[in-house]
Amino acid sequence: MSLLDRSACQLLADLKAGEISSVELTQASLDRIEAADEKVGAFLQQSGRAALAAAEQIDVRRAAGEQLGILAGLPVAVKDVLCDSTTTTTCASKMLANFRPPYDSTVVAKLRSADAVLVGRTNMDEFAMGGSTENSAVQLTRNPWDLQRAPGGSSGGAAACVAAGMVPLSIGTDTGGSIRQPAGLCGVVGMKPTYGRVSRYGLVAFASSLDQVGPLARTAEDVALLLEAIAGHDPRDSTSLEEATPAYSQSVSKPLENMRIGVVKEQFATGLNSEVETAVRDAIAVYESLGATVKEVELPHSKYGVAAYYVIAPSEASSNLARYDGAHYGHRTDQAEMMAELEAERKQLSESGDQRGLDNLDTPLIRMYRRSRAEGFGPEVKRRIMLGTYALSAGYYDAYYLKALKVRRLIRQDYDKAFEDVDLIAGPVTASPAFKLGEMVDDPLAMYLVDLYTVSANLAGLPGLSMPCGFSEAGLPIGLQLQAPPLKEQRLLKAAHMYQQTTDWHTRRPPET
Amino acid sequence: MPEQPYTTVIGLEVHVQLATQSKLFCRCSTQFGAEPNTQTCPVCTGLPGTLPVMNAHAFELSLQTAIALNCDIPGFTKWDRKQYYYPDLPKGYQISQFDLPMSDDGYLEIADPKDRFEPKRVRILRAHLEEDAGKSVHDEAAGKADSEIDLNRTGTPLLEIVSEPDMRSSLEARAFLQELKLLLTYIGVSDCNMQEGSLRVDANVNLHLEKDSEKVATPIVEIKNMNSFRAVERAIDYEAKRQYDEWQETGRRLGESPKQTRGWDDAAGVTRGQRSKEESSDYRYFPDPDLMPVTTTAEQVEAVRAALPELPAGLRQRLGDDYSLGHYDADVLVNQGRPVVDYYLTAADASGDPKLTCNWVTQEVLRELKDKEITIEQFGVSAERLAGLVKGIDSGAIPGPRGREVFTTMLADDCDAQEATSKLGIEQVDESELVALCQKLVDANPKIVADVKAGKQQAVGALIGQAKAQNPNVDPGRVREICLELAQQS
Ligand SMILES: [Zn+2]
User: Fold this and answer.
1) Where is this region: Disordered (chain B) (predicted)?
2) 0.90 surpassed by pTM
3) Is B286 on the interface with A (CB under 8 A)?
4) Which one, A26, A234, A464, A470, has the greatest CB density within 10 A?
């Protein structure tokens, strides 16, 4: 049995007991990546030598009896969207292919100060825009349970590397479901914390009011451990909450009593795959067997969630991505080629006597912007920039952006009301198990609907968790989503842990890799 | 001034750089004049993943200013992104305030002590906080060569103060700017250095005139690139004439052509049309999701108001009410800034003669400061010593005409009035001694006596000269009085 079959918490105990060393564990992780990632494609970059050096340091400090951080010696993978000054942060985009941030994101800094061993950077949809990781400008990531299928996204690499047993812990980000959806499709546990629970400083922004960093692992206990390491107020993030971080890793094993679980009827309506429905209902039955009462709740405005999300997120994205203009850093178009192009156009216009065309010809600066952005961004990113630019334009702002904000408030109010009667809301993460690679690339709208069950938690700012609750006949994992009121991550973790204590879905491993 | 066939209507937009140590959303220094791009960090250069954190001191300074401008302070204000592309704007947007500024609806009172216009209130539409952009340095000499960008200024806190179009002449516009600058200097929120860009002024100008007894307005022109108050004055005068000529030529009214931006060319003394940046600029403002709205309570506003220093308008009033100074004198003192006023107040309180003290300060002291290009803090005669001089003159210990000699000696020898007086050998002349001297002179000059008696009082001047020659300490006025009296009696 490989070291990496053990949970992070188990490994931590083994490290503390001196049964294994961090160098051994890190080497095992790097070996596994070496062996499996050629097929899976979860990593954009591995930091083998640096990781081993860090592991060695931790082993030395442990031997010297030093006080170590709560992740001491554990390999952790980081989504390539969180700045790390020791390497590039590409967001899986050509635009930032060579971008080396001169600073660390708060999450990366916290991982380091918790003595985690950062083994590599995981693949994602470009700038976290997408639900299949197919929008990565760099490579495909495959679902370890079926290499013909997508791992989900945008944190596809983050989920796949955990599912394939390459690392016990990984960091993702979730703007509309980007942790929970790939976790669901890859059969691992993933959590989107309350908005503001984890610092966004150094997280390359997609949609600032929705983005949240969160943990992925195979067990609720491991997710609790990783969340404890990265959560907390950050004075460098004005939207970060001034809340003390609970000791999630301690409290996760305390069971919840008199649990009241809410179920939203509409989530089980048409469109939901029957295998998913069965697995989710079975999971809810497991909770009943553990003493929970189940109650139907209403989230009447959730049906507008996807529509509101695809106005708000692109609007913010169009603004957040304006900085990638080739002037200061990132991709810049070839200057000689650009000037030649302009000159050719000028010549053609003046030969045809097109004065108007000449007057409207781009200045070199404008042409530099146009070409740099056209070359640097992929189609989905461009699509969202255009959507957002349109929604924020004079004359459209009220009809789109303001209206979407109203929907957002109503969705939050629905949740507040629902949580007066229940402690948690349980339901599906996605309508179906993992889809085939390429299946939806030509249908962006269908792709957007993948977020149907997950966007509302982002719009409302509340925490959500996804964990495996069964498998389809084809052997694909099915996810259960739990949602809780703001700041009730502990409740989610406890509930997930209770479930994993009585079921063994999380112990299954993908066959192929 | 000749009656013009039009009224010039002027509104001003003033950008004031607030005197904070660090930038509005990061900790970088705001010091002027550093090497390019040395005062930058990942936040103000807009690197991916960075987030702004509001500088509370900048907000405090803007609150002080807005309250001093009699503005309303809403309980809730937020930050918006103003989006446009330019290389000196590294994020692709400027963090500013759009529909809910931190203050609105205030006013500033302006007056002209020389009575060239009626005192008036210029209404303030709004004042809001925003971050500055960087600086593009174009290498003009190299033709199409690359521009260079200096981001030291990027993120510096600016307070944009927008007036209503309440001014009716360049003189009023200048008075507004001077009073505003004075106010800002009194509160200490800005150094208002126009050369270093800490105070920037744009003017919106158009004309109101009558055509066939119908009131007509000409299109509004925004004038930019004015680097001194004098330039603002000249540019407005130029623009008013230019618009009048244009109106006579085209008859174009407000709304019939888009708002135009013109740049002031100070050397040529003209405004020139600037290529309008993207025809209709849609800045796609939306609330910045990275920043929390700022709430201000009525208690906070009151606390800031209570802590404000005495403002120029109130100070002028007090100098009039408590020190019996006229508008003109009060204005001269207040316009010198608070340290000169403090100097005056100390001297006036100590001398007990506010009017005479004012004369000494506004004439001799200010002349010295100007000639030597020094500040009042660097000036060699303390307020207490100046009060000693004034008291000496009032008591007669120092004959008025010799006051200046005493003052000069005090300054040169760094001594008080008493010491200077004795150094100069000035003694008070006893009344009986003075009468005796005058009697002697009258007796010795029968021709002058005869002239005086014949009504030529000015003839007595010769006696004053002789008296001074015999005793430099005599008071010429008193000599004149006594001699006239004695001459009449003889
Ligand atoms: Zn900075």
Assistant:
1) 249-291
2) yes
3) yes
4) A464
Nearest CA distance, A278 vs chain B (angstrom): 40
Alpha carbons A67 and A70: distance in angstroms, whole number: 10
B259 DSSP β-pair partners: none
Cα separation, B202 vs B224, in Å, equals 5
Residue A443 — pLDDT band, cuts 50, 70, 90? Answer: confident
Tell me the C-alpha distance between A320 and A324, whole Å: 9
Q: Which residues pair with B107 in a beta bridge?
A: B123
- Residue B1 has a pLDDT of 46
B68 touches B187 (CB < 8 A): yes
Amino acid type, A225: L
Whole-angstrom CA distances from A63 to A32, A54, A228 are 26, 14, 25
Kindly state the helix (H) or strand (E) to which residue A288 belongs, with its residue range: helix A274-289
**Band of pLDDT at residue B205, cut at 50, 70 and 90:** very high
Using a CB-CB cut-off of 8 Å, the residues of chain B touching A393 are: 282, 284
pLDDT of amino acid A40? 98
CATH superfamily label, A3-251 = Amidase signature (AS) domain (3.90.1300.10)
pLDDT at B230 over 80: yes
Q: Taking the C-alpha atoms of A466, A471, A477 and A480 in order, what is their torsion angle to the nearest 10 degrees?
A: -10
Mean pLDDT in residue range B253-259:
86
Query: From CA A137, how far away is CA A135, in angstroms rounded?
Result: 6
ipTM confidence: 0.96
B149 CB within 8 Å of a chain A CB:
yes
A10-19 in b/e burial notation, b at 16+ Cβ within 10 A?
ebbebbeeee
Which segment of A158-162, A353-357, B140-144 scores lowest on mean pLDDT? B140-144
Query: For residue A454, how far is the Cα from the chain centroid?
Result: 12
Query: 3-class DSSP state for residue B95?
Result: strand
The token pair at A353 is 């006597």
| pLDDT, tens digit (0-9, with 9 covering 90-100), for B408-428 | 999 999 999 999 998 988 877
- Rounded Cα distance between A497 and A254, Å, is 9
| Cβ atoms B260, B272 nearer than 8 A | no
pLDDT digits (tens, 9 = 90+) for B161-201: 999 999 999 999 999 999 999 999 999 999 999 988 999 99
**Cα–Cα distance, B292 to A232 (Å, whole number):** 18
**How do residues A322-366 score in pLDDT, each as one tens digit?**
999 999 999 999 999 999 999 999 999 999 999 999 999 999 999
Reduce the secondary structure of A405-431 to three states and give it as a string. HHHHHHHHHHHHHHHHHCCEEEEECCC
User: Contact, A413 vs A361, CB < 8 A?
Assistant: no
CA neighbor of A454 nearest in space, from A60, A199, A183, A244: A183
Nearest of B82, B94, B98, B96 to residue B130 by alpha carbon: B96
**In this structure, are residues B97 and B79 in contact, taking their beta carbons and an 8 Å threshold?**
yes
Q: How confident is the model at residue A423 (pLDDT cuts 50, 70, 90)?
A: very high
B96 contact partners, CB below 8 Å, separation of at least 6: B79, B80, B81, B82, B128, B129, B130, B131, B160, B285
Are A101 and A83 a contacting pair, CB within 8 Å? yes
Structure tokens of A334? 């070839």
Hey, what are A473's tokens? 């006949």
Strand segments, DSSP code E, in B294-423 are: 294-295
- With beta carbons under 8 A apart, name residues in chain B contacting A321: 92
Other residues' Cβ atoms within 10 Å of the Cβ of residue A432? 17
Strand partners, B131: B157
Nearest to B52, CA basis, from B11, B96, B8 = B96
Closest CA to A469 of A498, A437, A447, A436: A498
- Catalytic site residue A289? no
**How many contacts, defined by CB atoms under 8 Å, are there between A and B?**
101
> Nearest residue of B to residue A235 by CA position?
B53
Annotated active-site residue A79? The verdict is yes
Contact between A96 and B48 using a beta-carbon 8 Å cutoff: yes
